[in-house]
Amino acid sequence: MLQRESTAAGWILVLVGLLAACGQPGADAGQAPITVQALAERLDRGDAPLILDVRTPEEYAAGHIPGAVNIPHTELAERLAELGADRNREIVVHCRSGKRAALAEGILRRAGFNRVRDLEGHFLGWSEAGLPIVAAAPDAVGAEG
């Protein structure tokens, strides 16, 4: 009886540990986060990874990292095909501050993408560093076409 309780307690500890790690960006993939400065340098060199902005279309239109692709985290599972078939392609995921990006990174990893990285500081960090931001023209926001 004691052995069963010990085994059950052990499994509970393992489960708690796994759940705690799942909430950490990059925790289960072995891919270190990339700093905003390192990403900016790669953009300048022309060897940037796919930059996935998982904020809302409104947030994206108000300002985004040059070259970023916008797929809101709530739509990502249904729109994975837009990222292409190469599951080894490096993808840097960001949102405003990190919560939505962590959810999106989990979706990507479960779909088989194995080079998923978190943008350290996310869009707030990029903006605070004074790095380039692309914004839609005021008359283009919400326009159809």
Quick summary of this structure?
The chain has 5 helices and 4 strands.
Name the features:
145 residues; alpha/beta; Oxidized Rhodanese, domain 1; 4 strands; 39% helix; 9% strand; disordered C terminus
Structure notes:
By secondary structure, the protein is α/β, with parallel strands linked by helices. It is built from five helices and four strands. It has one domain: Oxidized Rhodanese, domain 1 (3-Layer(aba) Sandwich). It has a four-stranded parallel β-sheet, with helices on one face. 26% of the residues are buried.
**Biggest sheet record:** 4 strands, parallel
**Percentage of β-strand residues:** 5-15%
* Strand elements, count: 4
Count of separate DSSP helical elements:
5
The radius of gyration computed from the alpha-carbon positions, rounded to a whole number of angstroms, is: 18 Å
Order of helices and strands: HHEHEEHEH
Q: Please state the structural category.
A: alpha/beta
Assign an overall shape: globular
For this structure, the CATH topology is Oxidized Rhodanese, domain 1
Regions with little confidence, pLDDT below 50 for 5+ residues = 11-29, 140-145
The percentage helix is: 25-40%
CATH superfamily heading: Rhodanese-like domain
